[in-house]
Amino acid sequence: NKGAGALTFQQAIQRLQEYWASVGCAVMQCSNTEVGAGTMNPLTFLRVLGPEPWNVAYVEPSVRPDDSRYGDNPNRLQRHTQFQVILKPDPGNSQDLFLHSLSALGINVREHDIRFVEDNWESPVLGAWGLGWEVWMDGMEITQFTYFQQSGSLPLLPVSVEITYGLERILMSLQGVDHFKKIQYTEGITYGELFLENEKEMSAYYLEHANVDHIQKHFDDFEEEARSLLSLGLPIPAYDQVLKASHAFNILDSRGFVGVTERARYFGRMRSLARQCSQLWLKTREEIGYPLGTYQEANLVYPHVSEKLSRKEVLGQAQTFVLEIGTEELPPHDVVEATEQLEKSLVQILGKRRLSHGKVHTYGTPRRLAVVVENLCLKQMEEEVELRGPPVAKAFDQEGKPTKAAEGFCRKNNVPVDSLYKKIDGKTEYIYARVKESARYADEVLSEDLPTIISGISFPKSMRWNSNIVFSRPVRWIMALHGDLVVPFSFAGISSGSQSCGLRNSSLANFKVETAESYLHTVEKAGIVIDVQERRAKILDDSSTLARGVDGDFIAPDSLLQEVVNLVEAPVPILGRYDDSFLELPKDVLTTVMQKHQRYFPVTSKSTGDLLPYFITVANGSISEEVVRKGNEAVLRARYEDAKFFYKMDTQKNLSEFRGQLKSILFHEKLGTMLDKMARVENVVAELTLVLGINEGVIPVIKDAAALAMSDLSTSIVTEFTSLAGIMARHYALRDGLPEEVHLLPTLNRES
């Protein structure tokens, strides 16, 4: 329902305010100082600190001088509008609340491809970081969703959920327009009519006319004022000065006057101030008695297993066991690593606990890790074990009577004293006893061990969401069945059961699994392709069919394919198209945008191998293919417009003209900039040509190559797409008429 009937910009803000107010958020106002993101508003930065609950929603005009484009780029603005939500503590259903907010905006979440794509967020200036996702709608990032772990260099407890909407992007999609200036702000007035001139003039200021000397002095003044206010015990006005200093830095950065070394120093100065503001804010809140109350940590103690479980007493009959750990969307590489660890840990525990079993199978998707064990025994095997006690010298006194040490050993292991016997171990004689370990039910044993198995899964980056439980992303449900019996235990405040969750865009929100044996069939009926190899095969087969339809092949490097396979639970490949005019851009630019930024498969001609103006995206679940196709095409068009903008800027100069800009790129703190490095390289090359007796005809080529080496690091394209370093040097060198031997040959192994 794009275009006609879509919300205006103003109505969208009103809808979000009404929705979040209805679920308990205070609707508040934006900062009165320029901020680069809603995160920097004290309503977020300061309020996420400490134990006070805090639920808030507000609009935040976010000013980023480096994104200045004079209003020409359809998606980039120096001042864009965020809608910021903070939920503290995490309510446990924050993703569902967010999806309902999209419905409040008139977005049909069952038609669109809504995806949570890994995003590890960090703000060096604020000393803040968190884990979460970019939320994509039909390939376009519309929201950042983050579980804050640290702010002001201080760990956070409770953890806060931050949801940051990009309103211009969302409204462009809702209204079906291809430029921010065409957005209907309110009835009869467009966004461009209100703000386009502002974009033009502020872009001119930030990119051309801002007086660097003045701005540098402003930064120093703001820093000094912040320190003065901190010494007076005033964290709120001090933090306001930190925001002003941050904006001054952003202006300097947009003017190109901040080198890498200076950047690190500026960041360090601002981070120190932000930390001091945070510490003083916390101290002040404590002194005034936490007026908003304090968060009470949930009791996450694992329940003791009941001895009166209802079992089908069929002794000796082995049954299937299944464990499914339901999570919010895991990063693709975590899916792979976690399933491997899960299988290894469970097999070890089953062996250690004397639980016989058949084959073990593991499965993983972004939202579930599962292990299925065939023919798991009902009970442990009985076993007689030999237990070693204390040395004989300490177990019996001089009269041969048992000491308290011997009696304690017997009492602990429930054996009579007269059953003890002696054995020499090494050079010492000990007392021993034989003890029969009784056969316990498998579910009793697993109830004790499964929490340990889950908590033992390690990830490159883990997060907290309640208490100090850590995992890659929040655990939201646990299903554990042995036959038709629930294996009862708890992890991270979640009790196990027989319920699982369906696809996010499915009408089947959750479903019951009757028996472990029926698990795979039940999941399949819910539309979930749980086996990674099946998902891979479907993606390859369907993509091949789509590419053949335009007489092409598709490019799917293994690393990209594995990522895409683990970004979806029910893959739906879709063919999209882009304008032929973009094929004028270098092929490497086009494929980098498709593969690295959008996770698309490029399509090439079967006959020539050249790029065709098509791509394949892999959606998730039962969606409207037409809606998703158009959305992804619009996103790629915007990405290519950006690349076109950068490429146009670069081609206004020769490659040699970028060499001087290497002075702003630090190579090593003790070795200087990249320009310093290249000067050393030239000197070394000159000496080597003499030592090696290089043919005089080749020397000019060598000198040209040394002089231009790595010059493309300062080009706009490589700044935006860093993986193109060296690749663009070759392109620009050939464009400038330099011989092919001159260009830098990247030494990295690149997948085609």
Rg, nearest Å: 32 Å
Strand tally: 30
**SS strand fraction:** 15-25%
When the domains are counted, the total is: 5
The CA-CA distance between the termini, in Å, is: 38 Å
Helical amount: 25-40%
CATH homologous superfamily grouping of the largest domain: Bira Bifunctional Protein, Domain 2
Q: Count the DSSP helices.
A: 21
Give the low-confidence spans. Answer: 299-310, 748-752
Catalytic activity: tRNA(Gly) + glycine + ATP = glycyl-tRNA(Gly) + AMP + diphosphate
Protein name: glycine--tRNA ligase
Keywords: Aminoacyl-tRNA synthetase, ATP-binding, Ligase, Nucleotide-binding, Protein biosynthesis
GO cellular component, one term: mitochondrion
Question: Would you give an account of this structure?
Answer:
With 752 residues, the chain is of the alpha+beta class. The chain has 21 helices and 30 strands. It is globular and about 100 Å long. The protein has 5 domains: 9-210, Bira Bifunctional Protein, Domain 2 (BirA Bifunctional Protein, domain 2); 319-380 and 441-526, Alpha-Beta Plaits (2-Layer Sandwich); 383-437, no CATH class; 532-647, no CATH class; 655-742, no CATH class. The relative contact order is 0.08. Strands 1, 2, 3, 4, 5, 6, 7 and 8 form an 8-stranded mixed beta sheet that branches. Strands 11, 12, 13, 19, 20, 21 and 22 form a 7-stranded mixed beta sheet that branches. Helix 6 (212-231) runs antiparallel to helix 7 and helix 9 runs antiparallel to helix 12 (442-455). One of its GO terms (biological process) is glycyl-tRNA aminoacylation. This is glycine--tRNA ligase. One of its GO terms (molecular function) is glycine-tRNA ligase activity. Belongs to the class-II aminoacyl-tRNA synthetase family.
